Amino acid sequence: MDRAGRKVLLYTSSMLMFLSSLTFTMYSHVTPCLTPPSPHNLTHYTHHVYDSLVTPPEPSLVPLFVTIVFIFGYAMGWGPITWLLMAEVLPLVARGVASGLCVAVSWLTAFAVTHAFMYLADTYSLYIPYLCFTVVCVLCLLFTAVCVPETQGRSLEEIENFFRTGRTFTISSLRG
């Protein structure tokens, strides 16, 4: 993180997650799937989509590779760097309370995404939740470009001053 920079890793992470989510979206949209008999029993699938003359498609390794790319992208950027940035960006006087609030929001968001995924997949199709993830990855990329400062090599005082004085790093120029 210190060599590459936080923003570069967040950009790379967002792009890898975007590409894998987009691939999942396209793959799940064009690949016929077996439908469950009810939304409450996802382990028992019926073959009523296919008649006796058509065989189901062969299993593919595309979802496995795309999942690996997504996990790699998340693990190199948005997974660890958000927690590091939270510790660097939050002001010292509010860091304890704000960190606790960030953790609570993170877990509540994970809970909501888990339930929304199942609802969207059951109601519409599997590609709709992946399309939503793709849009979120684009928003993460834009958020990184607009709102996240590069904190590599900066002291906590410089970062706090960045947000206090209108987004300019002035302390480092005084060291001269």
Task: Please supply descriptive tags for the structure shown above.
176 residues; mainly alpha; 64% helix; 0% strand; elongated; disordered C terminus
Low-confidence stretches: 41-45, 171-176
The gross shape turns out to be: elongated
Q: Which structural class do the helices and strands define?
A: mainly alpha
Identify the quaternary structure here. Answer: single chain
The portion of residues assigned to helices is 55-70%
| Overall residue-averaged pLDDT value | 80
**Percent in strands:** under 5%
Radius of gyration: 21 Å
Please tally the helical runs, counting DSSP H or I stretches of 4 or more residues: 7
Number of strands: 0
Largest sheet: none
**N→C terminal distance:** 25 Å
Secondary-structure element string: HHHHHHH
Word description of this protein:
The chain is mainly α and 176 residues long. 64% of the residues lie in helices and 0% in strands. The chain is built from 7 helices and no strands. The protein has helices at residues 6-30, 62-76, 81-89, 95-123, 127-147, 156-164, 171-175.
Write a brief caption for the model.
With 176 residues, this protein is an all-alpha fold. It is 64% helix and 0% strand.
Write the layout of secondary structure elements.
Elements: H1 6-30, H2 62-76, H3 81-89, H4 95-123, H5 127-147, H6 156-164, H7 171-175
Helix pairs in contact: 1-2, 1-5
